[in-house]
Design goal:
- Pfam families: Phage_Mu_Gp27.
- InterPro entries: Phage_Mu_Gp27.
- This is DUF3486 family protein.
- This protein is an all-alpha fold and about 160 residues long.
- It has a domain of about 80 residues.
- Helices cover about 75% and strands about 0% of the residues.
- The chain has seven helices and no strands.
- Helix 5 runs antiparallel to helix 6.
- The two termini are about 50 Å apart.
């Protein structure tokens, strides 16, 4: 397991962020304040902890913005499309999160494995639903073509597009 940052171990990251962002203290001033409160932490440890916090906050903000844009884009699409897209996005973020196995800090790693298995099963189930929906739609188009309601060329192009 990798070493934890002193600021995280001592659970003072919230205090560091508050002092830096709200009270506009420098990292040197924060070091002096924390040392006066009995914490053995260096200015560089404080700076690294804050930098790590700022990066995490930026990552969360980016994920939020991506998700909001995605929801706005998919608002008029079928629910399975939305769920499938969100599942893919979630899987992508989960894999980014676990790409550096040494940075994982789980009390029970089987929880992560279980979550990934459930996500993979959900994605497979959604793919089956999508395929069934496409098959039904092609059947409706085929029937419409046979009844003369749908142009045969359109049905052929759609069949090419979906590999039917």
């Amino acid at each position: 397991m990798p070493r934890r940052k002193k600021a995280v171990l001592q659970d003072v990251i919230t205090r560091i962020v508050y002092l830096y962002e709200n009270e506009k203290k420098t990292f040197k001033e924060i070091e002096a304040i924390l040392r006066a409160e009995g914490y053995d932490i260096s200015k560089s440890s404080i700076h690294r902890a804050y930098k790590s916090y700022a990066q995490a906050a930026e990552d969360y903000k980016k994920i939020y913005e991506e998700t909001k844009a995605l929801i706005d884009t998919l608002r008029e699409n079928p629910a399975t499309d939305v769920i499938e897209t969100m599942g893919t996005m979630l899987a992508n973020h989960m894999f980014k999160f676990v790409k550096d196995i040494q940075s994982m800090e789980f009390e029970d790693p089987t929880e992560l494995v279980s979550a990934l298995q459930k996500l993979a099963k959900t994605m497979a189930d959604l793919q089956k639903i999508r395929e069934e929906r496409e098959k039904r739609a092609l059947e409706v188009l085929q029937k419409g073509m046979e009844e003369g309601k749908v142009d045969a060329e359109i049905v052929r192009k759609i069949q090419e597009l979906y590999g039917a």
